[in-house]
Specification:
This protein is of the alpha/beta class. The chain contains 14 helices and 10 strands. Helix 2 (about 40-45) crosses helix 11.
Amino acid sequence: MTFRIFAIAALAAAGFSAQAQQPVKLTMQTNWRAQGEHGGYYQALATGLYAKQGLDVTLKAGGPQINLPQLLAANAIDFSMGSDSFGGLNYVKNNVPLVVVASIFQKDPRILMAHPGQGNDSLAALKGKPILIAYASRNNYWQFLRAKYGYTDDQIRPYTFNMAPFLADKSAIQQGFLTSEPLKAIKAGIKPVVHLLADNGYVSYATTLETRSQLVKERPDVVQRFVNATLEGWYGYLYGDRKAANALIQKDNPEMDDEQLAYSHAKMLEYGIVDSGDALKLGIGAMSDARWKEFTDTMVKAGVYPADVDVTKAYTLQFVNKGHGMNLKRN
């Protein structure tokens, strides 16, 4: 009888052990169709970094009309790629239980782009001039341009993500991303003047990693493992062999060609989009209380948020600033 009880207990323990070793299933969704700017996630998936952390990760590409915060809050996905610091503050303002756990980009890659030889060689020089701006942009970085450079809403012209008007008009100025639109202009025979907002006082974080506050509270180990694998993936994509990751990107988005992937990668390195500032000392994904406060104070002064908005609820430093993955960096 004693042996039988021991055997049953041993079998039960083995069952619990096997259950504990089952990979944790997670779904991560990006903010747009697969591209080089998502490379670290694809690198982590392609090279088995998530699996090594005991995670079974499904990576889903975003696209138009997809509401990532809604999907995240509804438990349809577990992690999502946010756009910028506005996201975290908007969650606080609207009492949405989501939180930023890392910032993959230290610099927001948003730009304003102009034709050469038109006197548009600084952001200050664009004050008062028509600028092609998407409707959604009015609620984020346009507020920074209004506050810092005195831009006014009557400068705005609708941008529909069609570059034909810009290419046809030498006086045109439009929004874009450092890693994308300039290449299209170059291929059309134009060497554009590019103003990276992040190099002109715009301190917003970008391509933030967001999740539910509940997951942070109840499964911090899972969040940490996902963050760690993702950071390793970004070091690998930036400084290692990214062929497998690019193959997965092109599988998810067949329109993403080798030239665009190479250009995006080169610009992320050249401008320190991912690995610069605090990330150089604290590791990719780094964030700081001071930078969040600086951004919030600027937007409060601009009237975007009330003076009593609690920025500390927008993010957590629990999972970053540990130098994780820095040993993988290669010059």
